[in-house]
């Protein structure tokens, strides 16, 4: 067995692990990153990037067909093979050589293989050929191992060899009939994509769609999916599954039976910690890592959990935000310099609690940040809700001849600051950063009156929200 020592070990070379390693190297710490699969991780090859590539082409066609003068130029149908080629190009055909080149240029040492913690600041990496390397960290080990799809314990389901998000985003054949189990972001986006390809899609979502967001968002997306020909089935659970010839047969709790060629399971995520060696340091294997706001695992002063693995916000951009804070605080602690761990300090991930932005690339698009009305009330805030129909702003008519959308701002009436915002409509993701800045900066409503939205754009909704709230009194 080979042995070596370094300052920091990062387990997982996805977007989150790469960002941690980049910060520690920039801080002068020798850093080794360990990866068992592809450098670049889930986001680059099986999640964010390929999924958006699958969604974009059909979305562009819908946008063109919604504008007179442009719709007449659309004379053909979606070229599914072209979409898949574009997806393959975006994933570099699942070749990570360019990502490895970036690691080399950044001064980050890559070790390929499966990492397992074996003791304090120590792990063993087992390569594909069985060779083992024991690596000891002088300062910290960072678990950036991400998460995997949760497969529910439904009789017969595994016998169908269902897709997870990985298979859905990397497929080279489009099923004629696709059943999607789950109404969260993955389920909604993949239902949208495959409906755009011409699949007969059924979504089974017991509690409706996008349950963690404002209810009007899920309702609008359900309506949008139905416009695309998707069957949205709510109020029933999957209770059993079986194979009948070439058909996957799903039995629901309300007595409904659904036949499909392929089943996609999108019911949640589980942490990649089952074979990480957590039991060797007194932690539960297979559990989410409980971290403080500096991303350090509680009770283990040398172990950090960053990204999905800590279950705080399972989004790539939040993981990268956490990575910047974690990398910098590891450097500060290693060098004995001041740790800025006050709320909104340089070494904490405060935004995870109150200002998490998210875009669902559905039809229509959904963008949200901060608290929903229900969350704000549950937090004990004095709430004012500002609702506005986005089709009423002048900019909407420049975007689409049939613009439909909704915007909601949640205001903490006592402090007169916005604490949450949700937008539903075409390309509303581009509205989100302004709301995120207003929430993180706690910009008073009185000051927002001086942030003039350009005309005619959809961002004029900010002025309409302000008018609904009322002008500040001198």
UniProtKB/TrEMBL annotation:
Disulfide bonds join 43-48. Residues 7-317 form the FAD/NAD(P)-binding domain. FAD binds at residues 52, 308. Binds 1 FAD per subunit. NAD(+) binds at residues 182-189, 268. GO terms for biological process: 2-oxoglutarate metabolic process. GO terms for molecular function: dihydrolipoyl dehydrogenase (NADH) activity; flavin adenine dinucleotide binding. Keywords: FAD, Flavoprotein, NAD, Nucleotide-binding, Oxidoreductase. Its EC number is 1.8.1.4. It is an enzyme of class 1 (oxidoreductase). Residues 356-462 form the Pyridine nucleotide-disulphide oxidoreductase dimerisation domain. Its cofactor is FAD. Belongs to the class-I pyridine nucleotide-disulfide oxidoreductase family. This is Dihydrolipoamide dehydrogenase. It comes from Schumannella luteola.
């Amino acid at each position: 067995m080979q042995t070596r020592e370094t300052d920091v070990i990062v387990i997982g070379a996805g977007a989150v692990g790469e960002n941690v390693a980049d910060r520690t190297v920039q801080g002068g710490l020798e850093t080794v990153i360990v990866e068992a699969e592809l450098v670049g991780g889930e986001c680059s090859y099986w999640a964010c990037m390929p999924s958006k590539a699958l969604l974009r082409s059909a979305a562009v066609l819908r946008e063109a067909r919604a504008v007179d003068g442009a719709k007449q130029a659309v004379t053909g149908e979606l070229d599914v093979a072209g979409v898949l080629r574009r997806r393959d190009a975006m994933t570099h055909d699942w070749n990570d050589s360019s990502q490895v080149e970036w690691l080399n240029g950044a001064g980050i040492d890559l070790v390929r293989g499966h990492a397992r913690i074996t003791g304090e600041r120590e792990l063993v990496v087992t390569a594909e050929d069985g060779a083992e390397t024991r690596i000891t960290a002088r300062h910290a080990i960072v678990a950036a191992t991400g998460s995997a799809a949760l497969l529910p314990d439904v009789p017969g389901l595994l016998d169908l060899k269902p897709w997870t998000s990985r298979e859905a985003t990397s497929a080279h054949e489009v099923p004629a009939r696709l059943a999607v189990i789950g109404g969260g972001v993955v389920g909604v986006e993949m239902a949208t994509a495959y409906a755009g390809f011409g699949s007969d899609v059924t979504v089974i979502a017991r509690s409706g769609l996008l349950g963690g967001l404002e209810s009007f968002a899920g309702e609008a997306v359900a309506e949008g999916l139905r416009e695309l020909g998707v069957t949205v089935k709510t109020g029933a659970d999957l209770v059993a599954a079986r194979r009948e010839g070439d058909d996957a047969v799903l039995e629901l709790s309300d007595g409904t039976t659904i036949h499909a060629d392929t089943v996609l399971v999108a019911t949640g995520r589980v942490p990649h910690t089952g074979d990480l060696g957590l039991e060797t340091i007194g932690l539960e294997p297979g559990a989410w890592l409980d971290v403080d706001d500096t991303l350090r695992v509680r009770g283990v002063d040398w172990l950090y959990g960053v990204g999905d693995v800590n279950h705080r916000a399972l989004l790539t951009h939040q993981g990268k935000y956490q990575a910047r804070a974690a990398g910098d605080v590891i450097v500060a602690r290693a060098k004995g310099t001041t740790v800025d761990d006050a709320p909104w300090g340089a070494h904490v991930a405060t935004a995870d609690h109150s200002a998490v932005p998210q875009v669902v690339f559905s039809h229509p698009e959904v963008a949200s940040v901060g608290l929903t009305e229900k969350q704000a009330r549950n937090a004990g805030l004095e709430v004012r809700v500002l609702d506005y129909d986005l089709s009423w702003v002048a900019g909407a008519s420049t975007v689409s001849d049939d613009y439909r959308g909704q915007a909601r701002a949640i205001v903490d009436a006592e402090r007169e600051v916005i604490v949450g915002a949700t937008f539903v409509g075409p390309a509303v993701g581009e509205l989100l950063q302004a709301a995120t800045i207003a929430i993180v900066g706690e910009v008073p409503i009185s000051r927002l009156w001086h942030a003039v939205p350009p005309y005619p754009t959809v961002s004029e909704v900010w002025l309409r929200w302000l008018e609904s709230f009322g002008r500040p009194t001198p």
